[in-house]
Amino acid sequence: MKYFWIIAISMWTFTACGQSNENNMSDKDYPIQKSAQEWKQELTAEEYRILREKGTERAFTGKYWDHKAEGTYVCAACGTPLFSSETKFESGSGWPSYYQPVNDGNVEEKLDKSLGMVRTEVLCGKCGGHLGHVFNDGPPPTGLRYCINSASLDFQEKEE
Ligand code: FE
């Protein structure tokens, strides 16, 4: 009977690991696929560093942290709509901050244990570009704070 439990627990562990791997999309699963060389040609050096190498722009230096126009923030790499100005708020962080994405399909959220921290990374769901992180200290109605690099975004002004 002792061996039954050892086997059962081993099987559960292997299954659990398999599932977590499946939940983390590999690069091959994104609808938009480009080589590093192609991205380097299309993006600025700063955009490439942040979107493709998971960098972070310095606080209060990006073009959108204090941007207040009405419209939609889209992925700088592939143009996918990501955040509405209606969900943007003043976080004081120096990065553009939103309390929710335009929909669940356009953004991906992934566990990030880099730099000795446990955070949730936010990526473009279509091209896999790194956008920023999401934290649990946002305002109502969601309580979430999507902390996004300006360099990962372009802005489409609302048409009157
Ligand atoms: Fe994208």
Provide a descriptive summary of the structure in words.
The chain has 160 residues and is α+β, with helices and mostly antiparallel strands. It has one domain: Peptide methionine sulfoxide reductase (Metal Binding Protein, Guanine Nucleotide Exchange Factor, Chain A). It has 3 helices and 9 strands. It has a 6-stranded antiparallel β-sheet, with no helix packed on it. A 3-stranded antiparallel β-sheet has the order 2-1-9, with no helix packed on it. A hairpin with a 7-residue loop joins strand 3 and strand 4. The chain is globular and about 40 Å long. The site of fe (iii) ion has 8 residues, from loops. Fe (iii) ion binds next to loops.
List the topology elements.
Elements: H1 2-23, H2 36-42, H3 45-51, E1 71-75, E2 81-84, E3 88-89, E4 97-98, E5 107-112, E6 119-124, E7 130-135, E8 145-148, E9 153-157
Antiparallel strand pairs: 1-2, 1-9, 3-4, 4-8, 5-6, 6-7, 7-8
The structure holds fe (iii) ion.
Task: Sum this structure up briefly.
By secondary structure, the chain is an alpha+beta fold. Helix content is 22%, strand content 25%.
Query: In percent, how helical is the residue content?
Result: 10-25%
Give the overall pLDDT as a whole number. Answer: 88
Q: Record the strand order, biggest sheet.
A: 3-4-8-7-6-5
Number of helical runs?
A: 3
- Please tell me what the overall shape is: globular
Q: Briefly, what CATH class?
A: Mainly Beta
Number of domains: 1
